[in-house]
Amino acid sequence: MKPTMSRIRARSTEFLTRLSSHSKHRMVGATVGVSALCLSSIALGGFHSDPSSSSSSSVLAAARYPPRDGTPTNNTTGAEVDAEIDEAYVRHRWRSLQIFSGTANEELAAQIADIMGTRLSSLKIGRYADGEIAIQILENVRGKDVFVVQPTCPPGVNDNLMELILLISTMRRASAHSITAVIPYYGYARQDRKLRSRVPISAADVARLLEAVGVDRVVAVDLHCGQIQGFFGPNTPCDNLDGSVVALPYFASTELALDRNNTVVVSPDAGGVYRAKNFREGLLAMGLNAKLAMIIKQREAANQIKQMDLVGDVEGCDCIIVDDMIDTAGTLCKAAEELKKRGAKRIYAFATHGVFSGPAIDRINQSQFEKVVVCNTIPMDGKGHSDKILVLSVAQLLAKAMESIHFRKSISKLFTLQPGKLPLFTKPVGDHDE
Predict the structure, then answer these.
(1) Residue 326: which pLDDT band, with cuts at 50, 70 and 90?
(2) Which residues fall within 8 angstroms of residue 273, CB to CB, at 6 or more apart?
(3) pTM, full prediction
(4) DSSP 195
(5) Is 84 exposed, middle or buried (0-12, 13-18, 19+ CB in 10 A)?
(6) How far apart are CA 348 and CA 266, in angstroms?
(7) CA 374 to CA 235: how far, in whole Å?
């Protein structure tokens, strides 16, 4: 079907509308109309006068000498015009993207940029003589869509949080169009409610600080409590990505050789049952007929367990303990001992965030675990070494989420598992098919 002048003008108007939808100040109708007419003229060749122009190989440029009835030459179809306009839109959106990294996890940020086929934008972060944080953005961000990758993780939780706040504030004062904070590990997440009198709800206070300096959107991975998303107002969407999709291929692999009909996913406490249930459903989708169990623990104080009780049967089974984070690993290792007493055959653990405070590494080395799997939301530098710890990267997951956000596409597919298929995407991030 040959594209008419009205068809190209309509597609050009759509292109301009899509561009203007990414602006906080929409273009007025007259401007859109004039701009659309200009694009239409380009598409029909009205702005080309040199037949030997280097743009003659372009699909649109090939139609620059239309007949008087306004119909392009036979070499150009409506589908080709549509594709050319879509390609121009995608190129424009990629040019408006900039990724910055704080100092908390630069390696992860570099992996994300590499997967997205770009580079980290330049900035300078240092310290003044009195310890204050000094920040300078070395590239123009005016009108850009900015992503700031910075987990608020140890060591230096407060420094990393302050760095993130100042980075967002700097971008806002430099007239960035939109600012998305990518926080692989959300510090203070465990202080999400009042368990006793006269204590703060620190997770909510962190959310208010980020909103106060002008963040537009937040992307986190496995928040300690999903309700933390509600601490952000309706004008600041918060996406909570599921880190387990990174680990599922490992646990479903033939290399690990879990018993496909005798595997149990174990929640280390009552609050983690929902997380363990989702992990079990992921294994079911990948062909492992896993069951579910739960450990009920009674604490004497923070990081001190008085008693553990098991709900479920693990005798002769391969067990996977699933949690959101490993801190001192005391609870985790005691849970493994309890499972071993109940007759578990092999014991594994998966936690998205490897905090590994204090004696955690030593405890894991001396534990009943075959393998402890974590993600690289927190860097492992300076935490010690253990052959029992395997670190998987969430860079692909975050890159896909950032691309989807930037191009206004749904991120729900990042949580969808199809039977027999790996949850991570084999297509490159630059593939913009819906």
Answers:
(1) very high
(2) 267, 292, 294
(3) 0.80
(4) S
(5) buried
(6) 10
(7) 32
CB under 8 Å to 346, separation ≥6 — which residues?
Answer: 258, 318, 319, 370
DSSP E strands in 138-193: the ranges are 145-149, 178-183
**Which helix or strand (DSSP H or E) is residue 361 part of?**
helix 360-365
Which two tokens mark 58? 């372009």
How far does Cα 120 stand from its chain's mean position? 16
Strand order across the 178-183 sheet:
97-101, 145-149, 178-183, 217-221, 238-241
The HSE-up count of residue 208 (CA atoms within 13 Å, CB side) is 6
For residues 50 and 309, give the distance between their C-alpha atoms in angstroms, rounded to a whole number: 82
Give catalytic status of residue 340 as yes or no.
no
Report yes or no: 244 and 262 within 8 Å, Cβ to Cβ. no
pLDDT of residue 255: 82
pLDDT in tens, 258-291: 988 899 999 998 889 999 999 999 999 888 999 9
Please tell me the distance from the alpha carbon of residue 210 to that of residue 233, in angstroms, as a whole number.
11
**Within 10 A of 319 (CB to CB), how many other CB atoms are there?**
28
Residue appearing with tokens 């306009």:
85
Of 277, 291, 297, 345, which one is the catalytic site residue?
297
